Amino acid sequence: MSENAKKIKEIFSDYETNSNLKYASITALNVIKKTNTLEVDIYFDEYIEIKEIWYFEKFLQERFKFKDITLKINYHESVKLNSIETEWKNIIAYMAHKYPLTKPMLLLKSNIEVEENTINVKMHIKGAEFLKAKKTDKELEKVLKNLFGKDYKVNLTEELSNKDIQEIKNSIENVQKEAIAHIEEENKEKATKEENKYNTPEYIPQENLEGYEPKIPQELTNIPIDENIIETKEEQKYILGKPSKAKEKLVNIKDITASEERITIEGRIVSQDIKETRTGKGMLIFDIYDKTGIITCKSFTKDIKEGNEVIEKIKNAKSIKVIGKAGLDTYQGDVTVISNTIIETAKEFPNLPQEDDSSPLILGNTLNITDPLVKISELGVDDGKVSIDGEVIGMEDKETKSGKTILSLDIYDGSSTMTCKAFLNKDNSKKVIKRIKNAKGIKIAGTAQMDTFSNELTVMINTIIKSNGIKKETRQDNSEVKRVELHMHTQMSQMDAMTSATDLIKRAMKWGMKSIAITDHGVVQAFPEAHKLLRI
To answer: What's residue 2's pLDDT?
Structure first.
């Protein structure tokens, strides 16, 4: 320890404590501005309780407004430290204050075994995998390193006795019983309120009930009624769902994102289908077009019979209004609206635009792409709506259970390559794929986001336009004195090269090189090909 090291009570004179911590020496202070963290190295001549270390950390955090405080403890070699088994509860309490999101309190009643630098934590409750996922074991290793100045490896395991397992089962059963009792109590209260409302003086029966004859006050029966001044409000025709007092948020399909909450869209039906789920419910899948774009919507009915009735009404509707929640369909990897309300409307919407092979537009509704053009190498997950111009170097199409086609395009724009995805309808998938294959290049517009299926950055495409592709320049060797390449591999070098001997020799001849050396890994299979070319 340095002779110039000062005591805590000298540097932080306003820190009040009766602990011997105030006599500890501070050997180093380090401020990390990027993470707003203060690191303090402290040297002790005697053992300090863990709770006193936590109090001092809290003081520093509140006093200097740092986001995090890291204390690194160093003890004199003569100091006898308490064992980790003895301090286990204090260590867990310290972690609970410092790193609450790692849920360390689940480890409180565990048995621990310390074998040299390994700590085996045997939990009496389930949750080891959960804690590993939260990296609780890694954070615990850091805490032990800072508190005891020693590197430990922490292993989390579950060691449940029959008694522990039975307690867990009993706990689950009790929670289920309480939940069922709570639901039954709510249903009883709801039924009682529903029953009582008919007995109140304020209750007015619905006029469309069979057998109901409204009573007209005597003083109003002889008043002449002018039919021209009666305003009749057209009732909405509900195909699915019930009226709601919630305000509608009408949005254009092209502006819908996965982060939307409750929204309303209106348009004409492009396609519809129904399937029966494993639980016997009817799942309605239908596409809506509103002049700005197409989106897939899903609704659920109590059974397949009701689903068929709803689908029939949707088919016959001129247009429909859908109310629901927009989110990312992890099965299809696309934004979908899960709707609970479908209303028949009579609004006019144009037919879906017919694709013109002479037009550069391959997919989408407009040739005018306004999204910013970006390089793939500079693309990030937070960039949102972007456009990319490049060449398709790979393509794969896959039909989903709903009948749509997932088209994956590997696009190269001169800076890097990435996979972009588009969802195509049955009617236009083959035509779109064919036109992309025949195009020199394409310009796409869409949304940059993480693909939940592949866990990679991708662009979900909504527009594809033909382009001229990448301008390619043939590389030249303009040196007056040509070099001789002495290290060159062909495709005969396994996993190391992709160029044939013929292409290498032709390029060397084109650049005016007198010779090259082919140095494949342990093989001479490229020799016949090179010999044959040079004999011609």
So the answer is: 58
